[in-house]
Amino acid sequence: MNLPVTNIPSRIVVGVDDDYRLRESLASLLESAGFSTLMFASAEDFLSSGALAQAGCLLTDVCMPRMDGLELQRRVRLERPALPVVFMTAHNSSDMRRRAFAGGAIEFLYKPFDAAELLQVIERALTGPSNA
Questions:
Q1: What is the pTM of this model?
Q2: Cα 28–Cα 114–Cα 81 angle in degrees, nearest 5
Q3: Rounded distance, CA 104 to CA 48, Å?
């Protein structure tokens, strides 16, 4: 259930990934666990949507066309420095992982990841002391 940007619950998980099937799967999984979601095909779509102010957690791919997840994280930090950011990637790169954590990421998951693990990470992101 992708909610309109104008009526977003406070515990919303924003997902950004250029893979349509993954976005649909993530939304289905998260919503079945009781989370609300907004899914975006690109970092640019998310940033221009106005949803940043209401996001409870950002779940983003690292490797995307145009703006990658690391640049998205950098831009998000300018407006919402404490917003929990969770990265996911199919690329095993210690440099990307190091940069994500240096930028304040709370988790870095490798695709394919375990659904239960993702749900635990999201719950921690939304209830932990660093969310804002």
A1: 0.88
A2: 75
A3: 22
- The closest alpha carbon to 107, from 94, 123, 126, 88, belongs to 88
Rounded-to-integer distance, Cα 45 and Cα 59, Å: 14
What is the residue type of 73?
Q
Distance from C-alpha of 31 to C-alpha of 25, rounded to nearest angstrom: 10
- The CA-atom distances, in angstroms, between 54 and each of 29, 82, 97 are 21, 13, 26
The answer to whether 60 and 73 have CB atoms below 8 angstroms apart is yes
In degrees rounded to 5, what are phi and psi of residue 5?
-60, -25
Q: Are 29 and 13 in contact (CB under 8 A)?
A: no
Does the CA dihedral 126-129-130-132 come out positive or negative? Answer: positive
Which CA distances in Å does 126 have to 24, 42, 95? 21, 22, 26
pLDDT, one tens digit per residue, over 28-87 is 999 999 999 999 999 999 999 999 998 999 999 999 999 999 999 999 999 999 999 999
Sign of CA dihedral 29, 35, 36, 41: negative
Tokens of 44: 């640019």
